[in-house]
Amino acid sequence: MKTLKKVGFVVAALALSLLSIPQSKAQTTSNAAAVSMTFAVNSSLTVAATPGSIVFTSTAPNTATASSAITVVTSWNLATGGGNVFTVAYFASISAALTNGIVNIPTSEVFASINGGSAAACTLANVNVAAANPGAICPQIFGGIGVAAQGTHSDTLLLSLTSATAFPASTSSYAGAITISAQAT
Amino acid sequence: MKRASSLLLPQLLFFGLAVSAQTISPMIVECGKKCRGEFSITNNGLTPLAVTVEARSFSLDTLGRATNRPLDPAVDLKLEEGSARISPKGTHTFAYQLKCADPSCSVVLLSSMVVGHTAEGILVRVQLAHTIYACEKQKDCRKKVRAAAGGKVE
Questions:
Q1: Chain A residue with minimal CA distance to B17?
Q2: Fewer Cβ close by (within 10 Å): the C or N end of chain A?
Q3: pLDDT tens per residue across span A97-140
Q4: Which residue of B has its CA nearest to A81?
Q5: Which residues partner with A64 through β-bridges?
Q6: Are strands A110-114 and A120-121 parallel, antiparallel or unpaired?
Q7: How far B40 CA lies from chain A's nearest CA (Å)?
Q8: What is the ipTM of this complex?
Q9: Which domains does chain A show, CATH number per domain?
């Protein structure tokens, strides 16, 4: 019994001695770890064209207007300012901007008005860009020379058809595609 | 008739009003006589997008405007893919290898894409350019090409 008491006393003393260790001795210190972070942002160019398609309505036997203007929004994020950004519209074929499979409507009969300006035929050859087909290019939509590093430009492109003679009546519709092309140089 | 028009209307709204908004990144790169590169096309729309890529050489005028032409014989370009289908909100990366046998080569990779289709009127196609300037030395290649064209160099 005495031995048991002694053992109990020793255990209690040890427990108390453990509690009496200063807290500062239990702390550890570590070196500050540096975490490197990288964030790469590439240059980018975005073009939004709305709507995705338009239809023409005859206003006279030899004229037609588009169902709506095409809104073209060009946005860019360059590494530095001072670059050039161009947006143009063109057709793949000079002789057949639209076709019903038999009769073609050439680009000389397709007119484009940019931002409400006067309409001009899509027959330009000297306007910049892309795969542009000389002789099938519409007036330039946007020409940003020495632009700021980041920017957005909104433009409208209203197409119309005008021919010297009446458009031939057709059981099948006239259809075609216009390309809105953007390039930074 | 009523049923047909009720089916046609959503189609017209979906395809006719679809926003063709696409992004290319990076849009300009500089490289040495031999280089490997890549660019990404992001489909910001809600419909799948078919993309085709074609290559052109180009020259700059004094205003920095590009006039494109078929690829020069001095350019050896290997494009890993010529087309792809990109899911809505998806991104696709096109890789290429380019060798330039001239002191400098200016090449543009044109990605064309179209949303929907039309049997009447005009379909709007969007085309975005990835512009590559290749010189003996990569550094300041674009500046050199622009300066050689008589353009303002920032």
A1: A51
A2: N
A3: 999 999 999 999 999 999 999 999 999 886 555 555 678 899 99
A4: B154
A5: A58, A161
A6: antiparallel
A7: 9
A8: 0.83
A9: 44-184 (2.60.40)
Domain boundaries, chain B: 19-148
Beta strands in chain A (DSSP E): 44-50, 53-54, 56-60, 63-66, 70-77, 83-91, 98-99, 104-105, 110-114, 120-121, 142-147, 150-162, 175-184
Q: What is the pLDDT of residues B134-149, one digit of tens each?
A: 998 888 898 888 888 8
Residue A38 binned pLDDT confidence (cut-offs 50, 70, 90):
confident
**Overall size of chain A counted in residues:** 185
Nearest by CB: A185 against B22, B66, B154: B66
List the structure tokens of B29: 């790169």
Chain A residue with minimal CA distance to B25? Answer: A44
Chain B hits for A152, Cβ within 8 Å: none
For domain B19-148, the CATH class is mainly beta
